[in-house]
Amino acid sequence: MKYFLQRLGFYLLTAWAAITVNFFIPRLIPGDPVMALINKNRGQIDTKAIASLYVLFGLNKHQSLWSQYTTYLSQLAHGDLGISFSNFPTPVSSILVQSLPWTVALAGVATIISFATGTFLGVLSGWLRGSRLDFLLPGTTFVSSIPAFWLGLLAIAGLIAVGSQFPVSGGYDPGLIPGTDTEFISSALKHSWLPLAVLVVTTMSGWILSMRNMMVTVGAEDYITVAHAKGLSDRRVMLSYAARNALLPNVSGLSLALGQILGSTLLVEIVFNYPGIGFEMLQAVGSTDYPLMQGIFLFITLAVLLANLLADIAYLILDPRTRKEG
């Protein structure tokens, strides 16, 4: 319990630091976003409403910086991330709610598949070292060295060159309305398989290599020899004794790799015009939409922190030593 509370306190402190940095980002960027919005929508916004726009965007010049900061924290507590410049007057939270499920589904499924498949293949490769499974390592290591966005571009070029009918852009067929009907779900799955495959292929080899090395190391431990001497089956020794202990470093590595996986997901979304957070970020950067960028950066930071906390909880469950006080 003490270990869990320590980790929870660390993540809460980190989340507060991330929120504070996120508050200062738009205030350190040169330029006046309100005047930029008025110039962009010349004739559509009354110039007499300038003061109201400053208040609306949380940039009230008559407020102290501390007062703006406390107002920002209060708005966050109520789920208010501000108003998008490029989609005025749509709230940033509404845009994120629309794009968030796409990114969570893509990154989540890719992480689960790559981690589970890579760990399983690493267990077999390490336990049966010297077998044909060792030939997986050079190929997967080479593929993982290719950036995910570049592999995505190569996949798109290859499919177009051979005249494939599989979709290489978008999240669903044009004309469909997002919903829970069978036609939309089938179209979304068809559009997601290529970016999903790119993410899985580029992240899986790291789990294979690390798990294989740990299995080789654990295989030489005394408790493995004792388990064999007891007459336990080879499968039980591999899974219950060797794999469980070899898995711990992979769980720790997962918490460190989540940020990289999410970053790769955002770039892959841009390559495939996938309607997730990455695609929205590209639109926000292109239109200098500071509130939307601010909301996306905050989401990415908090998502990585939450995923790391879950990984620490998994480590707590797998390793009994972390549950012992003193």
From TrEMBL:
This protein's UniProt keywords: Membrane, Transmembrane, Transmembrane helix, Transport
CDD domains membership: TM_PBP2 (cd06261)
Chain ranges passing through the membrane: 9-29, 102-128, 135-162, 192-209, 246-272, 292-318
Parts forming coiled coils: none
Subcellular location: Cell membrane; Membrane
InterPro entries recorded: MetI-like, MetI-like_sf
Bilayer topology annotation: Multi-pass membrane protein
Pfam families cross-referenced by the UniProt entry: BPD_transp_1
Domain (ABC transmembrane type-1): residue spans on this chain: 100-311
Primary site of residence: membrane
UniProt keyword Transmembrane, yes or no: yes
Family the UniProt entry places it in: Belongs to the binding-protein-dependent transport system permease family.
PANTHER family: OLIGOPEPTIDE TRANSPORT SYSTEM PERMEASE PROTEIN
Name assigned to this protein: ABC transporter permease
Organism this protein belongs to: Streptacidiphilus alkalitolerans
